């Protein structure tokens, strides 16, 4: 009888977590660059068997764990939350300051109050000081800006051209001026990215590779 209660309680807790993630995914359907989160559900028995030899357990502790395992072996638990990195649909906006990334492991580098962060939201604008910024007002960094915290400065209403490598040029009295190149970075271990306020990410361990 108790096993059934444990299984039902575990299933409810797991589904509540999935419901939270689904609600957040739906709330961000129209957020540029947003990536949905999903869950992987496991059971106590499988996870225990997978990791028991890696744990520093004494014999009596192992015996206790085996006893619990016999009683809880079918209790579902939330074993992992992951982010789906697959590409979404592209939309043509006819705005020269809107950018899209065609690789799932590329990010724009931006300067925030917490340091350098990364985003796939390429909907940018120019602030009152002439810097290329996100909708939240964070500076979009140039490649040199990864070390110097330098942004990309543009002239208001200037004609802008962007090459395939992210280099930005604008024209002043027909003379082309190189404004800089977008800092595009990738991660060898994308799982090290930690989601922050939508749709920003911070790197927890690894430094990204700049293109």
TrEMBL record:
<keyword id="KW-0969">Cilium</keyword>
<keyword id="KW-0975">Bacterial flagellum</keyword>
<dbReference type="InterPro" id="IPR019776">
    <property type="entry name" value="Flagellar_basal_body_rod_CS"/>
</dbReference>
<dbReference type="Pfam" id="PF00460">
    <property type="entry name" value="Flg_bb_rod"/>
</dbReference>
<feature type="domain" description="Flagellar hook protein FlgE/F/G-like D1">
    <location>
        <begin position="107"/>
        <end position="169"/>
    </location>
</feature>
<keyword id="KW-0966">Cell projection</keyword>
<dbReference type="GO" id="GO:0071978">
    <property type="term" value="P:bacterial-type flagellum-dependent swarming motility"/>
</dbReference>
<feature type="domain" description="Flagellar basal body rod protein N-terminal">
    <location>
        <begin position="6"/>
        <end position="35"/>
    </location>
</feature>
<dbReference type="InterPro" id="IPR037925">
    <property type="entry name" value="FlgE/F/G-like"/>
</dbReference>
<dbReference type="InterPro" id="IPR053967">
    <property type="entry name" value="LlgE_F_G-like_D1"/>
</dbReference>
<keyword id="KW-0282">Flagellum</keyword>
<comment type="similarity">
    <text>Belongs to the flagella basal body rod proteins family.</text>
</comment>
<protein>
    <submittedName>
        <fullName>Flagellar hook-basal body s family protein</fullName>
    </submittedName>
</protein>
<dbReference type="GO" id="GO:0009425">
    <property type="term" value="C:bacterial-type flagellum basal body"/>
</dbReference>
<dbReference type="InterPro" id="IPR001444">
    <property type="entry name" value="Flag_bb_rod_N"/>
</dbReference>
<dbReference type="Pfam" id="PF22692">
    <property type="entry name" value="LlgE_F_G_D1"/>
</dbReference>
<dbReference type="InterPro" id="IPR020013">
    <property type="entry name" value="Flagellar_FlgE/F/G"/>
</dbReference>
């Amino acid at each position: 009888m108790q096993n059934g209660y444990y299984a039902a309680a575990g299933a409810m807790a797991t589904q509540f977590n999935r419901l939270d993630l689904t609600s957040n995914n739906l709330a961000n359907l129209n957020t540029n660059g947003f990536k949905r989160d999903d869950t992987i559900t496991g059971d106590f028995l499988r996870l225990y068997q997978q990791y028991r030899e890696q744990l520093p357990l004494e014999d009596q502790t192992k015996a206790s764990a085996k006893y619990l395992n016999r009683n809880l072996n079918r209790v579902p638990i939330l074993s992992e939350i992951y982010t789906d990195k697959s590409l979404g649909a592209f939309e043509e906006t006819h705005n020269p300051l809107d950018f899209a990334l065609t690789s799932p492991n590329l990010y724009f580098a931006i300067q925030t109050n917490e340091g350098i962060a990364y985003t796939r939201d390429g909907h940018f604008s120019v602030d009152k000081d002439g810097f290329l910024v996100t909708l939240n007002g964070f500076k979009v960094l140039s490649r040199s800006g990864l070390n110097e915290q330098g942004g990309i400065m543009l002239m208001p209403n200037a004609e802008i051209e962007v090459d395939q490598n992210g280099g930005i040029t604008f024209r002043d009295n027909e003379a082309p001026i190189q404004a800089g190149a977008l800092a595009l970075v990738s991660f060898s271990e994308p799982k090290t990215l930690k989601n922050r306020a939508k749709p920003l990410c911070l790197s927890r361990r690894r430094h990204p590779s700049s293109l």
